Structure formats: C-alpha cells, structure tokens
Amino acid sequence: MKKVTLIHYGELSLKGRNRDLFEIRLKDNIEAATGGRVKRFRGRFVLNGGNPDKLEDIFGISWFAEALIVDKDLDSISRVTLDEVGKRNQSLPSFGIYVKRSDKAFPYDSVETAKIIGNQVVTQYGLKVDLKNPGLSVFIEIADEVYIYFRKYQGLKGLPVGVSGKVLSLLSGGIDSPVASYLMMKRGCTVHYLHFHVFSENEYVKNTKMAQILSRLGKFQKEYTLYLAPYYLFETEMLREINTKGHELVLFRRFMVKVAERLAIKNGCKALVTGDSLGQVASQTLDNIAEVSSAVTLPLFQPLISYDKQEIVDLAKKIGTYEDSIVSYKDCCSIVSSNPRTRANRRYIKELEEQIDIDNLVDKTHDLISVYKP
Ligand code: ATP
Ligand code: MG
After folding, report:
1. Which residue would you say has higher pLDDT here, 40 or 340?
2. Going from the N-terminus, what domains does the chain have, and what CATH number goes with each?
3. Rounded to two decimals, what is the model's pTM?
4. Ligand 1, atom 20, residue with closest C-alpha
5. 21-45 average pLDDT score
6. Residue in 96, 93, 99 with CA at minimum distance from that of residue 77
7. Which atom belonging to ligand 1 lies closest to the Cα atom of 280?
8. Alpha-carbon distance 67 to 317, whole Å?
9. How far is the CA of 339 from the centre of ligand 1 (A)?
10. What pairs with residue 2 in β-bridges?
C-alpha cells in the first residue's frame, strides 16, 4: 500500500496538441510548487511526495485527494477499505461507497464492487448506507492502479499558468489590479507586472507594500518580473501651465498604457491588463475607458469590467492580497486626479498630448524602467 495524491483536471474541451501542452505545463507547475514528482495517466495525475497543500493554489486542477494505492484484487481493496473505515468509524452516522471502474479487465463491475464491499462494512461496523448525504464517503477508483480515498479537495479550476502566453499587467497598489492579474493567471496567462511609482528612484519601491502584494500573487505564479517605471517625467509636464480641463487622469492612463505597450512588445507580452471596473470611479466611465483603450493597439484586458466593488473585495480577500492593498501608499493617481472629467473629449486629448509631447515622454520613461527581482 502506498500513499499518493490523486489529481484530476478539467480536460473536457481539450483536444490534440492543446491537451498535451495543458498536461505538460500543469505537471511542471505542480512539481515546481509542491516539490514532488508527478506521473501522468489518462485524465489524471499521481503526485508522489511533495507538499500537497500547495495544490490549492495551482490553476488547472479540478480536484485532488490523498489516496492509497492498493493491489488490484477484491481482497486487498476490501481489507484496506475496512481498515480505513475502522479508523474513521467513531460516531459516524452513515457511509457511502462510490466505485469507478475504468479498467474493464477487473472482474467485478462498479456496482458489484460497491455492493460487496458495502455489505462488508455494514456487517463489520453496523453503519447505515446513505449515498445522498453520507457521514463518510469512500471513493474507489479502479484504473491503471486502484486508488482509495475519502475526501476530495476542490481545485482552482481554470487553465495552468503559462499555456495561454504572456501578458503585462498594470499593477497599482490598490485592491483591483492584483485581482485582475489573478484572473488572467486563471485563464492560463503568465503575468508580468508594470508599476508606476512616485519615487525618484525605482528601488524605493522595494520597501513598500508592493513587495507583499507580489509575494501573495507569487503563490499562484512563482516566476514573474516586476517592471518599475517612475512617474516624475509625466508629473513635471502636468505641473506646467496647461489647462487640462479635467483630462489629466485620462492622459495619465493613456500615458501608462503607451509605456506598457512598448515594454510588452519588447518582452513578448501579447496583451495588457488593467483592473478597471465599469463606472467604479470617474476615470472608468465608458467614454474614458474607450479613450484609454484607443491609445494602444495591443489588446487591453479588463477582467473586472463587470464586477461590483464588493465582489472584487471578496475575491481579494480569498486570494490574500486585500490586507496589503488597503495599507496606505502614495500612489500616482491620488496626485493626478483633482476633478476628473467623466466624458473625455478625443480632440482635446490629442491637442494636450501634442502639447506635452507624449511620444517623447513615453520614450524617456520607457528608458528609465528597471526590473525588480523579488
Ligand atoms: P486599483 O485598485 O487596481 O488601483 P482603482 O479602482 O484604484 O484600481 P484606478 O486607480 O483608476 O482604479 O486605476 C485603474 C487601473 O489602472 C488599475 O487597476 C491599474 O491596472 C492601472 N493603474 C493605476 N495606477 C497604476 C500605477 N501606479 N501603476 C500601474 N498601473 C496602474
Ligand atoms: Mg488605484
């Protein structure tokens, strides 16, 4: 008898090469996170060793269970089941046995196996059978090997990080953008980050809450790059005598995505990500979001666009970024936004961008970007 962790993944829509990519990536991600060794079988993985608790944070897993591998004969299955039920038998109201037989060479089908073993449990322990709401569930899978387990842990679902390609996420210190980044990982993206800060040197960001937020996100994607960009060149332009007519926030957002696009293309990221939610604040009206999107040609993903603030907060708490996100931090937007306009005027934006020589600002800021290695 051997203890392993059985891992099932969602594979229904996967075919051919995609399925191979999915499986190989998921296997690598599991091994990197748990430190164990994964063996691939049809539709499932078996993890030997490592820390199975880490599986809770890996995208692409449907569910997992700590399982016993037993010899493929009815006597062994029955002996182990009775032993294990015995260990858990204190004051159990009822039990249910669920058998799945994919190895058709096994001489008893799933109904027969469940019946035989179920009767033995009833005889030995006097437990009641209840398949709808059992006090103890016993799962027996007869496949390449025989697995017995008692509890299924839900996985995060989604796609393994890395199968969908790279994106660049604009990460502020707020609540939303870490959640948006997480949701892109859920769809299989490798997420890298770009953060604009108010400091004079990139390295001052190291001692801020940004490091904590990133380490929380690192649970779901271990390897990532954080790019740091200063905001002072843009700020200096804003301090000149320019009448922005309430457009500075949209200008700033357009400036950020333009810098981000430059960086993304250079580093093979195929899309940009922001934490916008429609109508949440003045800069996130449909008109303003449209003006920001039209500043770039790369796709700009906003996975939170339809989320209510409370839904985002709940998810941030679940992910573990919420507590760090609410720590106070000097962020660029609080300086820029005095009285933002809800309907940006496209023609005026173009005029303003000429006045501040936006292309030059983007170039120069792009040149000041450095990489922060956590
Ligand atoms: P968040 O909680 O993510 O900061 P928010 O509701 O505060 O979002 P805004 O401040 O308007 O909204 O920012 C909208 C989006 O713009 C953010 O979700 C983020 O993707 C991006 N963003 C804002 N500030 C920065 C920054 N300093 N660096 C990088 N990206 C930023
Ligand atoms: Mg913000």
Report:
1. 40
2. 2-154 (3.30.2130.30), 166-372 (3.40.50.620)
3. 0.93
4. 274
5. 93
6. 99
7. 6
8. 31
9. 17
10. 69
Distance 335 CA to ligand 1 centre (A): 13
Share of the chain above pLDDT 70, in %: 97
Atom of ligand 1 nearest to the CA of 275: 18
Q: Are 18 and 156 in contact (CB under 8 A)?
A: no
- Enumerate residues with CB within 5 Å of ligand 2 (an ion): 172, 174
Which protein residue has the closest C-alpha to ligand 1 atom 24? 172
* CB crowding 109-138: b at 16 or more within 10 Å, else e: ebeebbeebbebbeeeeebeeeeeebebbb
Angle of helix 346-355 relative to helix 248-266, nearest 10 degrees, comes to: 70
Long-range contacts formed by 334-338: CB under 8 A, 24+ apart: 335/198, 335/235, 336/235, 336/238, 336/248, 336/249, 336/252, 337/248, 337/249, 337/282, 337/283, 338/248
190 C-beta closer than 6 A to ligand 1: no
What token pair was written down for 293? 């999107």
Tokens matching residue 367: 């040149």
Report the percent of the chain where pLDDT is more than 90.
Answer: 81
Q: Is 172 in the pocket of ligand 1 (CB under 6 A)?
A: yes
Q: Structure tokens of 272?
A: 């940009």
In the chain, the amino acid numbered 317 is K
Residue 43 is classified by DSSP as T
